[in-house]
Amino acid sequence: MIGFRTLLHKELLRFWKVSFQTVAAPVLTALLYLLVFSHALEDHVRVYTDVSYTAFLVPGLVMMSVLQNAFANSSSSLIQGKVGGGIVFVLLPPISYREFYLAYVLAAVVRGIVVGLGVLAVTLWFADLRLAAPLWIVVFSLLGGAVLGSLGVIAGIWADKFDQIAAFQNFIIMPLTFLSGVFYSIHSLPPFWQEVSRFNPVFYLIDGFRHGFFGVSDVSPWMSLSVACACLLVLAVATLALLRSGYKLRA
Amino acid sequence: MPPAIRVSQVVKRYGALTALDGVDLEIAQGEFFGLLGPNGAGKTTLISALAGLVRADAGTLSVMGHDVVSDYRAARRLLGVVPQELVFDPFFTVRETLRFQSGYFGIRGNEAWIEEILEALDLKGKADVNMRRLSGGMKRRVLVGQALVHRPPVIVLDEPTAGVDVELRQSLWAFIRRLNRDGHTIVLTTHYLEEAESLCSRIAMLKQGRVIALDSTANLLARFSGPTLAVRLPEGAVLPEELAAHGHPAEGGLVRFALSGWGEVETILAALRRSGVTPLDMELAKPDLEQVFMGMMQGAR
Ligand SMILES: Nc1ncnc2c1ncn2[C@@H]1O[C@H](COP(=O)(O)OP(=O)(O)OP(=O)(O)O)[C@@H](O)[C@H]1O
Ligand SMILES: [Mg+2]
Question: Which of A6, A9, A92 minimises the CB distance to B51?
Answer without folding.
Answer: A92
